[in-house]
Design a protein that fits this description.
Blueprint: H1 3-12, H2 16-30, E1 39-40, E2 43-48, E3 50-51, E4 66-71, E5 85-91, E6 97-103, E7 115-118, E8 123-130, E9 133-140, E10 146-149, E11 162-165, H3 168-174, E12 197-202, E13 207-213, H4 214-219, H5 224-228, E14 230-238, E15 244-252, E16 260-268, E17 275-276, E18 283-288, E19 294-300, E20 303-309, E21 317-320, E22 332-333, E23 339-343, E24 351-358, E25 364-371, E26 392-393, E27 399-404, E28 411-416
Antiparallel strand pairs: 1-25, 2-28, 3-4, 4-5, 5-6, 7-8, 8-9, 9-10, 11-12, 12-13, 14-15, 15-16, 16-17, 18-19, 19-20, 20-21, 22-23, 23-24, 24-25, 26-27, 27-28
Amino acid sequence: MNRLEKYIYDYIKFHPSLKMKVRNLYMDLMDLIPDYPSRFEGDLIVKENYFFGFHDHTPFSKDDQYILSNKLEIPLRMPKASDPLTVGYWDNSYTNYFDVGKSYAWNYHKGCRLQWVSLKDHRFIFNTANNNKLCSKIVSASNQSFEIIDYPIDSISPNGFLGSSFSYERLEHFMPGYGYHYSDNSFIEKKNPSKTGIFIVNLNENRKYLICSIEQLVRLENTKSMTEGRHYVTHSLFSPDSKEIAFLHRWVNSDDVSKRNSRLIVCNIDGTNIRVAPTNGMVSHFVWDKNNGILAYCRMNDVDGHYIFKDSSLKNYKPIAVETLNSDGHQHFIPGTRLFVTDTYPNQRRYAKLFIVDTETQKVRQIADIKSYKKFQTRTIYKHWGCDLHPRVNFTGDIVCFDSVHTGKRSLCFLKIKNF
């Protein structure tokens, strides 16, 4: 954002509905300016009508042999519970796609939480529904065997033994476009229920247990807005050593559910040693780094930006290129390095950008400038079909995978990068 845009944004960011109206009007006016071609630094492969979803997991298997992918079956509209999403994977030639089944629990932003479970037999998992009840399915790419887990998952631990889960009904109610249209004991009538929150799923035993309830979260460093708010959890992610889990605790205080408060929570996988990041009011996206630290886009001392917490105690942190990266983004570390990729939302000309960022030198390098067409713009929170880039990196560290609509269709893209 330029200085004027940043000034206006900071003025209206606490009023999300107004912010969306101003943004939409501004973009509509800027549409009068002719487009320029999308720009990419490197060779690009595009798979139209395919996408992956969120930025917190990579679609690449650890040996980079396979790439997970969803295939769209419906036109551009919000999905219903009866709408299927094809689930499968590409081989590393990017020419052969293997269809393994359908999901009936998905959305445009987080897909069906398709992700790898283990390298052995190339097992992966995704959410779906059976007899109107949410569940998840583990499939082997090696022998096509499968098993059903009785609960939907959000993230899988790096060791492949555990999953995280929460109420997707509650999430959809308070954050439309991110949950599912199924009933799942959400206790939606209660502001801070004691029987739902963040769950751990034991995949081997097909059993889940509540490690931190919403009621418990509300008591933790309570504020007036929390006492009066309606609460939910989302965006959970295990630490690299599989011993801890981080997630977002969110709440709303009005009928405008887009006006939310967020904070980052970290605890052990048994719910002990719970910590709260010292942010003020906003955390949007985060990932763990290789040293069990956390990189998050959040508000620290009233300044929005990317901040890295050096360890999971959340006590020591530093800003990352705040002056350059002054708008929200979705981060993903290049495996084994101090570098991460991140994106921006579409700007006033409807172009989103991809960057590579060095957490030590704070150097920022742009690698793409990508058109996002108006028909994919989220006009209201209840028609949330926009396409974020959500960059992810392979394990070799030379390919950035992202979702894009620059061809006029939602597509899964692979950008071959040199000289990371």
